[in-house]
Amino acid sequence: MILPIVILVVKIVVLIGILMGGFAYTMLLERRLLGFFQLRLGPNRVGPAGLLQPVADGIKMMNKEDLMPTAADPWVFRLAPVVALTAALAVDAVVPFGAPIHLFGLTISLDIANPSVGLLYAFAFSSLGVYGIVLGGWASQNKYSLLGGIRSSAQVISYELAMGLSVMGVLVMTGTANLEKIVQWQGAHHIWLFIPQIIPFLIFFFTAMAETNRTPFDLPEAESELVAGYHTEYSGIRFAMYFIAEYVNMITASGLAVTLFFGGWLGFPFLPPIIWFLLKVGAFLLLFIWVRATLPRFRYDHLMDFGWKVLLPIAFVYFLGTAAFATGVL
Amino acid sequence: MSGYGAILIYVAVSAVLAAAISMASEIMGPHAPGGVKRESYESGILVDRPLSHFSVRFYRVAMLFLIFDVSVMAIYPWATSMRAFHAAGFVKALFFMVVLAVGFAYVWRRGGFKWD
Description:
The structure holds two protein chains of two kinds. In chain A, strand 1 and strand 2 (106-108) form a beta hairpin. Chain A has twelve helices and two strands, in the order H-H-H-E-E-H-H-H-H-H-H-H-H-H. Chain A has helices at 2-37, 53-62, 74-91, 118-139, 143-166, 168-174, 179-188, 198-211, 223-226, 236-261, 273-294, 300-326; strands spanning 101-103, 106-108. The mean pLDDT of chain A is 86. By secondary structure, chain B is mainly alpha-helical. The radius of gyration of chain B is 25 Å and the shape is flat. Classes of the chains: A mainly alpha, B mainly alpha. The interface between A and B is large, with 79 and 66 residues.
């Protein structure tokens, strides 16, 4: 009885550690790479090659004065970043980081749990993150924040249908929504699902960029028009929490894309499965950063049209085609 | 520890951690009230009343989103057990898909996604 609890505690600590460490160094990597993209060096002063920059940033953020506008709604203002970060962390409970390992005669799966509705759970919690942004934008009682929050809600109703339909082909082919079984299916059939599902994968990737509020879909933030969007009024660690949430969401979205379409932890045997998983996630994070350095921002009515009139019909038709093929109608 | 119990504990830990982190600046940071630092960020023009009403033009799209999102949720279990249904199950459920597609096409044609 005591052993499962110990294992759970270890898993939770390790997972949160990976996500927080992942956040810190993804952010540093992004700042350095953006620097190189823009022909400058980026932060390289704190520690060797700037490696201690995240620590310095964290300490600085914690020691800043916490400001709240007098017009703001004090409780919602305080609650919003907590919602954003909790939702971001919660999604990763079902993402399998590696093949199940055998220890002390027990089989330990490398996720907090893998319920049969794993994929739905992940989507449900990743959508909840929007509340953090909308509430934060509303509670600030500032027009830029409010516009950012409203854009965030506009964004969620634009991409989410296409995102939901884009993974449907994976469900049809594997016959399960359990993320661990989806990876095992890909192992058993010696195929990564992006090969038969390349178009749904691209749709998933576009919508994942919208979900994580990354360029070209960073409309809620939109520095050049909305000051800083929904977190204009935030300072100190609450301001930082929105960034933690954004980067954790990025890691999660990469993890989901890898699990669903790129064989999760599967790889050649010379490296352990968890390393393969982290390498693939890292590749996706690089892609996210590269896209940010390359593309300008969408207008949000364009995004709405793009989601409803382009991505949604394509995802729907591709799903029906996959279903027809899988059941032998075609 | 069965699945959902573990998830519940993990989410609770995440929430407590997030709440604890969010208090850091209030506890560790300086408190130096005064000046204009608690005014809303603005171009210098003071807004005398906080924003209370804002016309959200895309409310119609939002309602359509609810309708279609619920329908998509209904497709999930069907998609997951697709292989068990074989061709007959696919053809029967296709009826539901056609209704959805016709509804979508109708809304599109009537300009349901126009809002500006």
